[in-house]
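FAQ: What does the model actually see?

It sees only this:
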Amino acid sequence: MPGQAAISLASADAAFTPVTGETLPELVAAQVYAALIEGRLPPGSRLSEASLARAMGLSRGPVREGLRLLERKGLCEFRARRGFFLRGLTRAGIDDLYRVRGLLEQHALAQAMQRPDTDLGAIAAWRDRLLRADRAGPPASPAMLVEEDLALHGLIVRLAGNATLTAAFEVVLSDTRLALSVVNQRLRRLARVAQHHAALVDALLARNLEAASAALAAHLEHSRQHVLQRLTALDAGHASDQAGAKIQPLTPHRAPRKGRQESVA
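And it is asked to produce this:
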């Protein structure tokens, strides 16, 4: 009876605990992603479940599920009888990635700017939010900075109002995150993220399609060249300043190291 069901459920309330925002697998995925972006785990690295579990003080189950989350995002892959590996990078792959990004983002930009009802308030809000956060808070983590950097590009794509285009861009974002992991990402201020996108943002807010398209093309080309330079240095073994030269244990609440960064997304 309904009354009996209600009584039974109420009597079981003591067995429930509050639901938190992140599960253990999500926290594992976040730590591995941070290590990738910070260079502590270079592309192509083997992700040992046992080693990660020991470093994080967990059993292997949550670690495996966390790596599965990264696999679904396209950042790592599972190889039979060998385990999980971060995906590797090639110069040809980087060129292909930025070629596709250019096509998708330029098409989205044109669609968004040609619609008279496009609300560009989110673009201005993105810039203002970064500047406020930069003034008010402590330095953000490298992973957060990359996400904020890419957030503007995602906004432009969504403003096009094309669900298929947005879905395609989400796939490209996974590859972009992997590409940016070879760039020295030790410390960067949110204000610099806004500054590196200033020409693009200004053109967008002025609804100047030609200027916005040129700014976007220049920005993506700069990013491509920077990633390729770092990849070449890593391949040649001349990246002694890259944090990934020595993989450090993953530990909870690890603070980002200080240094210099450049926005290249």
